[in-house]
Amino acid sequence: MSNGPLPSQLCLLSDLPKKQVGDKVRFLGCVVSYTVRAGVLTLEHRSSGQARPVRALVDANLILESLGRQHTRDGEWVNVIGYITDIPDESHDGDSAYGGVTIRAQAILLWSAGPVDPQQYEASVKALAEAGQAGGCAS
Fold it and tell me: Which domain of life does the protein's organism represent (predicted)?
């Protein structure tokens, strides 16, 4: 039995609604906005074949000291490791103004992804999931 923290599960942002509150995940997202007062990043990554868009509201308050301008600019791709803090239940899973599902997460680590080819990234995560190496997140 290990006394250390649990490893994160690599997921596509679009697969976060399949997770449970408290799950530790790693995902990639594109910055849509950053609310300075709340310390919350809004991230999206629209996957191919996705029925409804998924948005992640990422609370970055625990990592503000390491959060730079390069992490909060619109259009920047960032990697997040953190915990799911809220997933709407199926009867209230849509954000009427947004038209999709909004997930909330607490970031414990965030870093720039650099230039990303979203389709290639998505294919890589799905391939890892099929090989049983991504925590079963990708579908």
Answer: Eukaryota
Could you give the CA distance from residue 46 to residue 75 in angstroms, rounded to a whole number?
A: 13
Among the ranges given (4-18, 54-68, 81-95), the one the predictor scored with the smallest mean pLDDT? 81-95
Q: How many Å is the maximal CA-CA distance in the chain? A: 46
CA dihedral 87, 115, 122, 62 (to 10 degrees): -20
pTM: 0.84
Rg (C-alpha) for the chain, rounded Å, is: 14
* Of 66 and 49, more confident: 66
**SS3 label, residue 52:** coil
Assign 3-class secondary structure to 103-115: EEEEEEEEEECCC
Q: Answer for the pair 135, 27: CB distance below 8 angstroms, yes or no.
A: no
Domain boundaries, the chain: 9-128
